[in-house]
Amino acid sequence: MHCPKCGQQQISEETRFCSRCGFLLTGIAHLIENDGLIATGSGTFFAPNSPRRKGVLQGAFIFLLSFLIVPLAGILTVFLNIEPFLPAIAAIVLTVGGLLRVVYALMFESGSPGGKTLEESVIAASQNAIAGKKKAGELPAGHSVPASVYAPPPAAGHWRDTNDLVTPGSVTDNTTKLLTKEEERQ
């Protein structure tokens, strides 16, 4: 993506500001994806045919179903003259299940039509990771130089003394070392 103001190429589609001129790029990537068209009105919280709306409606249906099933289970319990565990279990499962379905839809499901649910997003992300696709904002692959490229050390006797790598403290120290080396060679 390039900045529309100065033409600077951006590193990532997720960049919020141009690195050269500081232009706000927040909606530019979305605009490019839609071929320059601005989406209108589909960003509501309960868009028609969205997974979130369907989940809330399912949860409400399950919750309201408890008002029908629990009394029927109670009547069945009285008719069969058994312990009233069936209405209790039905009340707990349907009431709590319906409320949990509503909460799940509100927290984890997409509000846009055709949007992905949490499970679909997780599965797609794991498939991308397995396939090795590069995501926006990801660092490039590491570059390493194999050890075989480096030359082996020169033949013995040409090694540098580690003391030679340190700058001498004074001129006399360096001269003294040189004189000591000359005496050793003779």
Which features characterize this protein?
186 residues; mainly alpha; 6 helices; elongated
Provide structural commentary:
The chain has 186 residues and is mainly α. It has helices at residues 28-33, 51-80, 85-108, 118-131, 162-165, 171-185. Helix 2 runs antiparallel to helix 3 (85-108). It is elongated. It starts with 27 loop residues before the first helix and ends with a helix. The mean pLDDT is 78.
Helical fraction equals 40-55%
Order of helices and strands: HHHHHH
Number of strands: 0
State the end-to-end distance.
71 Å
Cα-atom radius of gyration: 36 Å
Strand content: under 5%
Short description:
The protein is mostly helical and 186 residues long. It has 6 helices and no strands.
Show the helix and strand layout.
Elements: H1 28-33, H2 51-80, H3 85-108, H4 118-131, H5 162-165, H6 171-185
